[in-house]
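Note to self: keep these together.
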Amino acid sequence: MTLEKTNFINNLLDFYEELLNEKQQAALSMYYAEDFSLSEIAENMDMTKQAASDLIKRSEKKLENFEEKLQLSKSEQARNEEISNLINKYHTYPELCSDLEKLKEL
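Structure:
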């Protein structure tokens, strides 16, 4: 598991976690947020290591499908990039830049 993939999945979880069932949420949380091994996840969820691996893969795929269809993460990223561009363009207006920074946090 690479840091890039971990960040990608965690980002998707921010948007779509509530669309997963409790088992999927728990497995992904243990694997990506808590850094559990497949063996630890299997033990905690009373399943085989292979079942834990399959559950994680299916859950990741579900998150990716949600993003493909809804593009919430991609839209937020594009919005934040545009806000950053505006902040750079209007850096001489601190009050405006402050307001733009607040938009990024919404």
